[in-house]
Amino acid sequence: MDLPESLRAAFEPEFLPTGKFNRNSGSTAAEGKFYAQQPARMIAPTHLREENQVSDAYKQAGVDIAAGNEAVERMKKHVKTTFRPEVLTELGGFGGLFGLNKDKYEEPVLVSGTDGVGTKLKLAFAMDKHDTIGIDAVAMCVNDIIVQGAEPLFFLDYLACDKVIPEKIEAIVKGISDGCVQAGCALIGGETAEMPGMYSEGEYDIAGFTVGIVDKKKIIDGSTIRPGDVVLGLPSSGIHSNGFSLVRRLLLEQKGYKLDQALEALEGKKLGDVLIEPTRIYVKTILSLLEKVQIKGMAHITGGGFLENIPRVLPKNVNAHIQYGSWPILPIFHLMQQDGSISNNDMFRTFNMGIGMVIVVSAEEAEATLAAARELGESIYRLGEITTGEGIVTFEGAEV
């Protein structure tokens, strides 16, 4: 809608072409309205404030309210699958409400985490595959809080894009919902911001936030780790969500591999399928183990790899001594290292190398932990032991 020249100066400076729809969950459906961010002051005749005309003007500015409403309708059924009985929010509320059952805890402590997916998003754009990237967003948050023994309660997401395409938004939120189901937490709210001019065509960014709970006396912080304890590892599903700037530069730009190319080094799998494999969510496995054994410390192996993440949970007077070769390193890491001539040190400082979660238990509980994990159908590996040291990771069997 073209505005009269006399109104343009008054109208445009305050008009922010940003569409925002808040998705605060309810007890029966995950519904939110598409709230267009209106001008703070719009000096215009009454007829310009009629809904259809304002929507037309907003659409010309790059924000499609109708598309936003359609996206919300499409995502309802997915978000509903994540609900827990504690979700109290009415539909369309300003905030998500979640009731706490304090009877389960003597001294409940809330634990929070927030993260994004990084440049793994570039693969989703290139492959036009958007239904798993949300799993990564959830995983990066909930895996961070489970290491302290906290059960994730709820999750919120922020999705910003250049243009709302309802089926694409639905696919992304479906992935977020799938991740929440895997983690057992409720998706109680979110926001999708349509911001023309902020992102390249077809691109978006996603971030997540989670809150969990743990009894204060059951917080896992690594403080009881001692020499003689055993280091165990749960396998990763692939690269997870870190190191993709290096991955893209080496494999796609320098080596010239194509995402739809099947590689013998990857056991005949297509490169894109291997790279975009979602991050594993370890929540339910860890919660089950905690019912049977006492875990002294855990490390989520993300950016920084073994060398920077394991020390975050170690006391300053011990080392984690890792036996190289005690677990299978995934083919994608061998491909990266061989094609890029990357040192062991750089690989273990950048990637998870096939282990996404490290667990430390006493020597007395090691076998029970291994058995409990295997009863759950989990692969688990004995990586090494805790030795006297200075709070670092050391290796045997390879120079790292």
TrEMBL record:
The reaction(s) annotated as catalysed by this protein in its Swiss-Prot or TrEMBL entry are: 2-formamido-N(1)-(5-O-phospho-beta-D-ribosyl)acetamidine + ATP = 5-amino-1-(5-phospho-beta-D-ribosyl)imidazole + ADP + phosphate + H(+)
* Primary location class: cytoplasm
One GO BP annotation is: adenine biosynthetic process
Which pathway or pathways does this protein act in?
Purine metabolism; IMP biosynthesis via de novo pathway; 5-amino-1-(5-phospho-D-ribosyl)imidazole from N(2)-formyl-N(1)-(5-phospho-D-ribosyl)glycinamide: step 2/2
Membrane-spanning residues where?
none
Protein origin, superkingdom: Bacteria
Location of this chain's protein in the cell: Cytoplasm
One Pfam family cited in the UniProt record for this chain: AIRS
Recorded E.C. number(s)? 6.3.3.1
Transmembrane in keyword set: no
Q: Which GO molecular function entries does the Swiss-Prot or TrEMBL record give? A: ATP binding; phosphoribosylamine-glycine ligase activity; phosphoribosylformylglycinamidine cyclo-ligase activity
Q: What class of enzyme is it?
A: ligase
**Record key words, sorted:** ATP-binding, Cytoplasm, Ligase, Nucleotide-binding, Purine biosynthesis
Which InterPro entries does the UniProt entry name for this protein? Answer: PurM-like_C_dom, PurM-like_C_sf, PurM-like_N, PurM-like_N_sf, PurM_cligase
Q: Where is the PurM-like N-terminal domain?
A: 109-214
Residue stretches making up the PurM-like C-terminal domain: 226-392
One GO cellular component term, please give it. Answer: cytosol
The record's family statement is:
Belongs to the AIR synthase family.
What protein is this chain from?
Phosphoribosylformylglycinamidine cyclo-ligase
Originating organism: Paenibacillus mucilaginosus (strain KNP414)
